[in-house]
Write a structure and sequence with these properties.
Layout: H1 2-34, H2 50-59, H3 75-86, H4 100-135, H5 140-154, H6 157-175, H7 185-189, H8 204-211, H9 215-230, H10 233-240, H11 245-256, H12 258-283, H13 288-297, H14 301-329
Helix pairs in contact: 1-14, 4-5, 4-8, 4-9, 4-12, 5-9, 6-12, 8-12, 9-12, 10-11, 12-13, 12-14, 13-14
């Protein structure tokens, strides 16, 4: 098991290193093609003094001559960037000169809260609906579950969010004004936008909506995996022993169906990162997705690179955890 973990960890580090270098190279290429982003520090059409421009370039590590040569990978700035990240120094923004580390301290917790509710929603609904459909294979319930999840998955997440805000949240808030106080739990749960004073409560519904992304895919994966195990010999033996259906489903069917399900959860978790941008934008949640989107609009190169770096780390870590869960569920995998 130890060799398996070390091998997977080294593969994850190699993958992360390649991804980070590609992000850095794309940033360097953008600077080489579009021009020096340090000019944004002075704003508008103002032409800065050369000495002041050189000072700003040194401040934001843009003074390396490689940024003037199109196609140069700028290896030295990449190594310096990694060293700064390792030391906890993520630099500052061009607009406003704010510390990026402080911004991350505000944005990351909100995105983590969002993913807590979305992941729980995705896993619980997919497991319940997939198991229910598998137990009623070929019946009305089976077809209803598949049709409903496909319908939900076919609607863009931003459309569901807008429908929730304007059709549910806003009218419900007005209608229930005399029933519950806006500062109460229910008033904050169905609030049409994010409230920083109630960071957990006002993220519940957006998290549930984001969790619907990929629900059809994971539900059908759960259903197919359990149908395969329902016809296996060990399930037939368990039924012959007279075990209850609930025990057979939980202990034998669900447990032996987890490997493909874990794969689907890992894939959909990475897919939800893109949905977080829309969710945070519509609901006004100050999270990583909204930060990256705003940084792209303002041409905040450093902030974009930092945000994408953290997203890449999250995806690589989730993939590593999926591999380790594989080994825990099926010991034969670690010897392959």
């Amino acid at each position: 098991m130890g060799r398996y973990v070390i091998r997977r960890l080294l593969q994850a580090l190699l993958t992360l290193g390649i991804v980070l270098f590609l992000l850095h190279y794309l940033m360097a290429l953008s600077v080489q093609v579009r021009g020096n982003p340090a000019l944004l520090f002075f704003g508008g059409e103002r032409t800065p003094d050369p000495a002041m421009l050189a000072q700003v370039e040194r401040l934001y590590n843009l003074d390396n001559p490689c940024y003037e040569r199109t196609g140069d990978p700028c290896v030295r700035p990449f190594i310096e960037r990694l060293q700064n990240y390792a030391a906890g120094d993520f630099g500052t923004t061009l607009n406003g000169n704010r510390d990026v580390g402080e911004l991350l301290g505000v944005y990351i917790p909100n995105t983590l809260r969002l993913f807590v509710f979305s992941t729980i929603t995705l896993v619980v609904l997919a497991m319940v609906l997939g198991t229910w459909a598998a137990r009623h294979h070929g019946r009305v319930i089976d077809h209803s579950v598949r049709g409903t999840t496909i319908l939900i998955d076919s609607v863009p997440v931003f459309l569901i969010l807008l429908a929730y805000v304007y059709i549910v949240a806003v009218p419900l808030t007005r209608w229930a004004r005399g029933i519950w106080d806006t500062e109460s739990f229910m008033g904050q749960v169905f609030r049409p936008n994010y409230n920083p004073d109630y960071p957990w409560t006002t993220i519940i519904v957006p998290g549930i909506i984001l969790g619907s992304v990929g629900l059809a895919t994971l539900t059908r994966l759960v259903r197919a995996s359990q149908l395969e195990n329902l016809g296996s010999d060990f399930v037939k033996t368990a039924k012959a022993k007279g075990l209850k259906q609930m025990r057979i489903t939980v202990v034998h069917v669900v447990r032996n169906s987890m490997i493909p399900i874990v794969t689907g959860v890992g894939y959909l978790f990475a897919f939800m990162l893109s949905g977080a941008v829309l969710t945070e934008g519509v609901m006004g949640i100050p999270g990583m997705g909204r930060m990256i989107f705003g940084a792209v609009q303002r041409q905040e190169t450093n902030l974009v690179i930092v945000g994408l770096t953290i997203s890449a780390i999250v995806v690589v870590v989730v993939s590593l955890l999926v591999d380790l869960i594989y080994a825990a569920l099926d010991p034969r995998i670690r010897y392959e």
